Amino acid sequence: MALKRYTKMEYGSPDEMVFGEAKYPVSYGLGQTVGAGMVIPEVNFAPRPGAEKNPETLRREYVDYITKDVLDRAITLGFPAVQLENEHVFQMVNDPEKFEKPVVAGQKELMQKYHDEYGIALSIRHTIADPRLAEEGLRPGMDKKHSYPEKTIEAFEVAAANGADLLSVETMGGKEVADYAILHQDIRGWLFGIGYLGSLDMEWIWPQIVEIAKKNKVRAGGDTNCAGANTSMFMAGGYLDKDIPRTFSAVTRAIASARTLVAWEAGATGPDKDCGYEGPIVKAIAGKPCAQEGKGAQCAHADLMGNLIAQVCDLWSNESVEYHPEFGGSSVQCWLGNIGYEAALMNTAKQLKQDKLLRDLYMATDRYRSPESFILAYDNAYKIGQAIAENGNDIYLRAKLPA
Amino acid sequence: MIDLKSVNYDRVLRRYDIQMEARETPEDIAAKMVPQDPVLKKIAEDVVFMRYKNVQDDVTAALGTFSPEEIIDKGLVKGMDVVSELYGRGIYYLPHVMVAADAMDRGVKLCESKMTGAREMKGKVVMHVAEGDPHDIGKNIAAVLLKSNGFNVIDMGRDVAVEDVVQTVESEKPQLVTGTALMTTTMSAFPKVADRLQEKGINIPFICAGGAVNRAYVESYPMGVFAEKAAQGPALANKAAEGWDWRKLRENWDKLTGGA
Amino acid sequence: MTAARLIEEESKAGKLKLSKHEQDMLRRIITDLSALPDEQGKFVDQCLKAYKDIPMFNPRNYDL
Question: N or C: which end of chain A has fewer CB within 10 A?
Answer without folding.
Answer: N
